[in-house]
Design goal:
alpha/beta; Aspartate Aminotransferase, domain 1; seven-stranded mixed sheet; binds pyridoxal-5'-phosphate
């Protein structure tokens, strides 16, 4: 059976072949505990140290600023809960379009006496830095705004927001799970204090992440145990996955221009094809000038996106902008925050390309979408 064409790279990515080879080598040859003083332990520690450097290099950080975690969700929890624990302020600023891995942490904190300001976004899903500044209070302890949105690809003006945070003496965290490998991130040139990294969005396996913590920024432990990862993430290191994340970061950095050019080319080819096939019916839920190069959140007027996605689903894999529960349609909170109406949300597809997506993949997907919509229009 031929594999379906995968166009959902913001959901996850397959493991890169070089990353898989690195993992295989470690599975076969390295089983030591990095905390052990004898040679096989030291070998494992060297692998973890190398990976820390590779991750740091991708964002222009120092290795001492990287803590390995199990995923982006854990990195977000550690950043937010750890930063707040280290301070007395009880106010947080975030945006209305964060991933649940941030929003749900904030909601939990609201039940523990914290107050949260949810800054709105414009019709393109972007935060206005002036709104962030307006929300700052004397007791604001943290601003957490994502770098790029997983559904729309909208890139947030995080450097401006980080500067506002710095000006007011507030810590700034950004969830960069979707942006790494797709747009440049340079923490040394920015006032970002804390930044979340996800392995499985950059061709490493699921179940590995990292948190960048700027040197000098104090966060408290939220888990307790031995002293791994400066005690911030106790537990014997997952050497295989850490090495995989390191390799994935090295490859992402090395191939950045080639990969982003391909993602953009195939995304734009998809968009052009949709516009050609469905003139007057296509609306993008983003401003493509401020959008990840691989992401197209697009509404096809008059089309039920769920029906379309399920009809093409054994050949082309995409996401939709709403969720169906027991017959009723729930608009995604991101599209809701952008004031996208129910009709448009229900006809929204999220199509995301990857570093190996080909023109042929796109053309097959376009053909299938066109033919299926024709059937649905009848
Ligand atoms: C922006 C963003 N943050 C956090 C996450 C959570 O990642 P994980 O499930 O690997 O913890 C995701 C995953 O989709 C994401 O897109």
């Amino acid at each position: 059976m031929t594999q379906p064409i995968y166009l959902d790279y913001n959901a996850t990515t397959p493991i890169d072949t070089e990353v898989a080879a690195e993992m295989k080598y470690i599975i076969d040859a390295v089983y030591g505990n990095p905390s052990s003083a004898y040679s096989i332990g030291r070998t494992a520690k060297e692998i973890v140290d190398k990976a820390r450097l590779q991750v740091a290099n991708l964002i222009n950080a120092r290795p001492s600023e990287i803590v390995f975690t199990s995923c982006a969700t854990e990195s977000n929890n550690l950043a937010i809960l750890g930063a707040l624990k280290a301070q007395s302020g009880k106010h947080i600023i975030t945006s209305a379009i964060e991933h649940p891995a941030v929003i749900e942490v904030c909601r939990q904190l609201e039940t523990r006496g914290y107050q949260v300001s949810y800054v709105p976004v414009d019709q393109y899903g972007r935060v206005n830095p002036a709104d962030v500044e307006k929300a700052v209070r004397h007791d604001t302890a943290l601003i957490t705004i994502m770098h790029a949105n997983n559904e729309t690809g909208s890139i947030q003006p995080i450097d401006e927001i980080a500067n506002i945070a710095r000006k007011h003496g507030v810590l700034f965290h950004t969830d960069a799970a979707q942006s790494l490998g797709k747009i440049k991130v340079d923490v040394a040139q920015s006032s970002i204090d804390l930044l979340t990294i996800a392995g499985h969005k950059i061709y490493a396996p699921k179940g590995i992440g990292a948190l960048y913590i700027k040197n000098g920024v104090k966060i408290e432990k939220v888990m307790f145990g031995a002293s791994q990862e400066k005690g911030l993430r106790p537990g014997t290191e997952n050497v295989i996955h850490i090495a995989a994340l390191g390799k994935a970061c090295e490859v992402a950095q090395r191939d950045f221009d080639k990969n982003t050019a391909n993602m953009r080319h195939t995304r734009d080819r998809l968009f052009d094809g949709l516009q050609k096939f469905f003139p007057q019916r296509v609306t993008v839920n983003a401003n493509l000038q401020h959008c990840l190069p691989n992401t197209l959140s697009v509404a096809l007027a008059g089309v039920d996106a769920h029906t379309l996605a399920s009809l093409i689903g054994n050949k082309v894999l995409v996401s939709t902008g709403s969720a169906c529960h027991a017959g009723s349609v729930n608009i995604s909170p991101v599209l809701k925050a952008m004031k996208v109406n129910a009709q448009r949300a229900a006809s929204t597809l999220r199509i995301t390309t990857g570093k190996h997506t080909s023109e042929m993949d796109v053309d097959h997907a376009l053909d299938l979408i066109q033919n299926t919509v024709k059937q649905l229009d009848k």
